[in-house]
Amino acid sequence: MRFVDEYRDPDLGRALAGEILSLVEPGRHYKLMEVCGGHTHSIYKYGVDDLLPGNVELVHGPGCPVCVIPMGRVDDGIALAHEPGVIFTCFGDMMRVPGSDGSLLDAKARGADIRMVYSPLDALRIAKQNPDREVVFFAIGFETTAPSTALTLKRARAERVENFSCMCSHVTIVPPLRALLESPDLRLDGFIGPGHVSTVVGARPFEFIPADYGKPVVIAGFEPLDILQAVAMILAQLSQDRCEVENQYKRVVPYEGNLRALEVMAEVFELRPHFEWRGLGFISHSGLRLSEAYADLDAERRFGVPGVRVADPKACQCGEVLKGVIKPWECKVFGTACTPERPIGTCMVSSEGACAAYYNFGRFAREREVV
Amino acid sequence: MSPNGASAPPSEREQKILGIIETARGKRAKFRDNHVTMAHGAGGKATQGLIEGLLLPALGGQALSELADGGALQAGGVPLVMSTDSYVVKPLRFPGGSIGELAVNGTVNDLAVSGARPAALSLSLILEEGLPAEQLRAEVEAIATAAREADVEIVTGDTKVVERGHADGMYICTAGVGVRDPRAALSPTALEPGDRILLSGSIGAHGTAIMLARGEFELDAGIESDTRSLWPAVEAMLQAAGPELRCMRDATRGGVASVLNELARASAVAMIVREGEVPVDAAVAGAAEILGIDPMYVANEGKLVAFVAPSRAAAALEALRAVPGCEQAAEIGEVRAAPPGMVLVATSFGGRRVMDQLVGDPLPRIC
User: Fold this and answer.
1) How crowded is the C-beta side of B107, counted as CA atoms within 13 Å?
2) How does pLDDT run across A270-308, given as a tens digit for each residue?
3) Residue of A118, A141, A369 lying closest to B1 (CB–CB)
4) What CATH fold (topology level) applies to the domain B70-180?
5) What pTM value is reported for the model?
6) Do A335 and B1 lie within an 8 Å CB cutoff?
7) B 204-243 residues with CB below 8 A of A?
């Protein structure tokens, strides 16, 4: 595939791996967090971490938008889906995320009309095709997907689609990063910045990371060479005692972000005072809800949701795993109460989360030498 | 493998936890769900739970517990294989085939990869009230043509009609009987380290064609289903490798990845797949890229995976490539001893990863 294969060239990958090896101090252990779930997926899909030296460790961050949705929020969604006359729509990978009593997929099996969509506009189309039903779109994701939700709501307003509403669970990337960085026991040396989010918000919002916390950030694309190059750029900063935001993904990310998208978001959304993150707890100003101007399209106001609060079990230590303080297997509930079949925290929900990956492939990771 | 040396050896506590996980994973899958969900039909872990947790304990005899594509039996001293399958595909017609053709080839292929020459099929039609006669006629025609091409006779059948809204137009169920080829000594537990993994052609076409034919993606790629009888491919390999042909599987639901995982577990071996050797047509690769789906998990309807002892692997591959429709057959990897039950991929990019079992339907990702 042209314009894709170029970023997957194994020879260039080996060259970058060599460069990375020349940048590390042999005695030092490096922990770099890739913030975005999309990076985690690429790292896994291409086996990128296999090309890194043993003392460079990638820590999967809090940037998987489905995994951070807390149980209570899933329960609220399921309650809405069971309202008479409702067609509940959401992205495919949200359907498997467990609430306190099963997932949306389970609710569908129990008779709720839940449909997978590929974009919020699909949900709006379903609303137009079913004027006698109430269609709710379960909006999730970081700043990457929030603009498309915002545009869809604007269109619903313009076209007077009155049976459409949105249960907004959009989140923003900076507050959870700040929460991680605030922690005194943080063990991270640098960040691979989220490429997709940055296409919208730009690079500027990440400047506080080097400025206030002294950690380098390199915004990266999603092809394997992008990720290796970002690792090399972070290590270069560390070896040269530099600390700044760099943009590896210049072909897509403008430093100022997408001003038009930010404008639309500002019109349609406002910050919630606080939002709960699975495994991380409540974080101030980290979630979005519909602004007053769009309150009539807010499913939570239209139907009233139970507002279920399901506390993460006390023993869950996702926060510490994300901060790199403990390894997945050191968590009290890992492998016993918390398994991929019955996950408790965000790190076990996605198959690429740190805990799920360790649960499924831990022995392989340990036995690489013999394979 | 890490160029800068390995990390520290696992501590006693980590070893213990790895042990707990392995014990849990080694246990037979359970069926603990309160409801059947679509995941139970997707061929991954949930399906395994349904089969190993509910069906096998209740029904399993010797033949069934092999969990092969067909069950072995003897009738009057003749070794037979029997298999059955139901077809619920939507839409009924799609580029490259239709439900009628699938209903013949799917069951024929389950017999073929069990080492049996397909002899006879039964045919059950479940028709929805209101189905246009023209569509029914077209499917009956497709069944007749596919049966003729696969050289099997439809020897018995049944028809039922259900009320409107109950069967998506039509469902078809076929069962087949085949005569086991004397050269075949196949078993899912027979794999040994060193065995080579052969694939009979390019993957992912059927599942991708169906996804696109449903019209949900507004993508048009001209991809056609690969539905065909695999008996000619099986016969060519039996001729070339005889008892050195250890096992074959038809890579339908769940794709090649699911076949490899099932067999790695059944034989308690590891496998390594060289991603760059796996044939995928450019159009399928492009569609999969856009949809965020891995072709290794996408269904095929005319592709088999075969495991051959190293001494006969080259001969089997050559024989396979001479069969019409299998020109792109390739050796995609080999069986290793450890870690047992795991399928590893050497990626084209130069890294390695685990190719896990599918958890449920392959759902498009947002992140």
Assistant:
1) 33
2) 999 999 988 788 999 999 999 999 999 999 999 988 777
3) A369
4) 60s Ribosomal Protein L30; Chain: A; (3.30.1330)
5) 0.88
6) no
7) 216-217
